[in-house]
Amino acid sequence: MAVVVRVGGTPPAEIRRIAALMREQHRTRQRQFNAELREQMRPLERAIRESTPEYMPSGYEPTIVKAIRVRTLIRQTGIRARVMAMGRSEQRDVAALNAGLLRHKLFGNPLRWFSQHTRAGFVDNPVRRAADEVYRGLEDVCDRIRQRIERG
After folding, report:
1. Collapsing DSSP states into helix, strand and coil, what is residue 93?
2. Domain residue ranges in the chain
3. Model confidence, pTM
4. What Rg do the C-alpha atoms of the chain give, in angstroms?
5. 66, HSE (Cβ side, Cα atoms, 13 Å)
6. What pLDDT does 152 receive?
7. What's the CA gap between 131 and 135, in Å, rounded?
8. 86 contacts 69 by C-beta, under 8 angstroms
9. How many helices and strands in the chain, by DSSP H and E?
10. How far is residue 53's CA from residue 132's CA, in Å, rounded to a whole number?
11. Residues in Cβ contact with 11 at an 8 Å cutoff, skipping those fewer than 6 apart
């Protein structure tokens, strides 16, 4: 059987209020930290958009540039960037575009599809070029956050 001991002094309601304040402060700091990390990932999207003319046919390039989105996923295990592009009704196949394959309908005939080879590395190469800038930015954010925590 367990023994329950009540310690006098601070009332339980005050303890709960302080705990709630601490949780809220933690959430606020976590949101700020995540926002700063996401901001440092923006050069990836910019690099992909700027290099699109090198990889896509001129007729398709304006369409894909408008559709590109980079979503930053922040987890305890690390940070990932998900590159996607939305079409009118579904997501475009960014993995195939990255591999150098563009599939498209024949103009005016939605039943006939064609495959067109493009230059591979649509996502990979711009990300590699922007990686150093992103890493430096992420390190700076982590240093600033660590200093804030150490200061209290």
Report:
1. coil
2. 12-151
3. 0.73
4. 24
5. 5
6. 64
7. 6
8. yes
9. 4, 4
10. 22
11. none
